[in-house]
Amino acid sequence: xxxxxxxxxxxxxxxxxxxxxxxxxxxxxxxxxxxxxxxxxxxxxxxxxxxxxxxxxxxxxxxxxxxxxxxxxxxxxxxxxxxxxxxxxxxxxxxxxxxxxxxxxxxxxxxxxxxxxxxxxxxxxxxxxxxxxxxxxxxxxxxxxxxxxxxxxxxxxxxxxxxxxxxxxxxxxxxxxxxxxxxxxxxxxxxxxxxxxxxxxxxxxxxxxxxxxxxxxxxxxxxxxxxxxxxxxxxxxxxxxxxxxxxxxxxxxxxxxxxxxxxxxxxxxxxxxxxxxxxxxxxxxxxxxxxxxxxxxxxxxxxxxxxxxxxxxxxxxxxxxxxxxxxxxxxxxxxxxxxxxxxxxxxxxxxxxxxxxxxxxxxxxxxxxxxxxxxxxxxxxxxxxxxxxxxxxxxxxxxxxxxxxxxxxxxxxxxxxxxxxxxxxxxxxxxxxxxxxxxxxxxxxxxxxxxxxxxxxxxxxxxxxxxxxxxxxxxxxxxxxxxxxxxxxxxxxxxxxxxxxxxxxxxxx
Length: 509
What we know:
Elements: E1 2-6, E2 10-14, E3 19-23, H1 25-35, E4 39-43, E5 45-47, H2 50-61, E6 70-72, E7 78-85, E8 88-95, H3 108-116, E9 119-123, E10 141-145, H4 155-161, E11 167-171, H5 177-187, H6 189-192, E12 195-200, E13 203-209, E14 212-215, H7 230-244, H8 256-273, E15 292-295, H9 305-317, H10 325-331, H11 336-347, H12 351-364, H13 377-386, E16 390-395, H14 399-408, E17 417-420, H15 421-425, H16 433-442, E18 449-453, H17 456-464, E19 468-472, E20 486-488, H18 491-502
Parallel strand pairs: 1-4, 1-9, 2-7, 5-6, 9-10, 10-11, 11-12, 15-16, 15-18, 16-17, 18-19, 19-20
Antiparallel strand pairs: 2-3, 7-8, 12-13, 13-14
Keywords: Carbohydrate metabolism, Hydrolase, Magnesium, Metal-binding
Pfam family, one: PfkB
Cofactor: Mg(2+)
């Protein structure tokens, strides 16, 4: 199943907290779809200001396809200004900046992709009304959120939208059952063959199709941290559940039981999402000061781990043994101790003998780190150095190997601090000792530092040290990225994100 969110993107900026959260209906629906395990994409215009770069990083971290997006050159991102005291939010206004692009004109390729999607989410805030006719003939469900404002509930506006959609969503907080029936009858959704989903805040949601209504159950909001985006989470889960049961364009959405079950599942999903800050997390602290960035070495600065893995595989092969795929995955980001213990387990040989054989192989064929430096590493470290941000390398490797790698790759001049978990902490990740040591030597608090990691153990160590962890994703290794603050596919992406954080666009917030 492929889901596409079509429309604008915004940040909800809490001015009193100095924290903003990415969102917007189309973005929220795409992210929720990805979290529900389906292929998801976002189609919209991303400004090339610092806010747009953070939005891009957030979408990428949620595994949302951004290939349908355009970048608005010299554009500005839409900000919804608010304050928040505990659970109470106060709306202050909308700031679109000097060059906001609501929604780009769609090309043939994007239009074809959208028409082929199983589900498309759009809304009144996305400013896509004029292009909805392009989607006529779509095979899947086109869901449109009309929000809560009266200006989007007129004959003129409905005339632009309803002929092209399958599901109309409305927010009618506090509306009684009789008020809802009056609303449905007034606009004759049944005669238009339009399904309608109405959410009512803490009251039970209502679904209507061809004059028949099904009541759901209100989301359990106990333990809620933030209800931002709850309606989008609810609608996404509801539509996806019905589509999994076969709902398609031009067909009935399902039986009463299927619809009721979908409403219940949607409420449960929305409740889970309400336990996150913002619509789906990823806070952007635009006033934040970053004094240091700490890098893991193997897999982050140099692609050395495949070399180490191959050395272990070759050593085991000389004994007629092989590693399982799960065992190989566990090697990435692990300590020498773990690797040697694993080698003993696989070969069944004495630890001292195996360690001697492995070390002899390693020193007979030493790794030239300059040949495995990850593209963009030097540019990233040089940028941080020029930006007066201190740089540390904290690795479970031997101190001599760290220094040799930095020297061979021409990176030593950009690094202020080096810390070895093996030689100086006698502890391997996920123990945070090596990161704590690096922070101490940098004389920097965890809140003023970022850590760049690529492995399960490394991410766990960085989180335990109290810093935000940027994860560099790799095609190899089964990495649990739980706890990572954001995820990236290259150093170039990390550099652009750090530039946005270090040099935020001036919006007079």
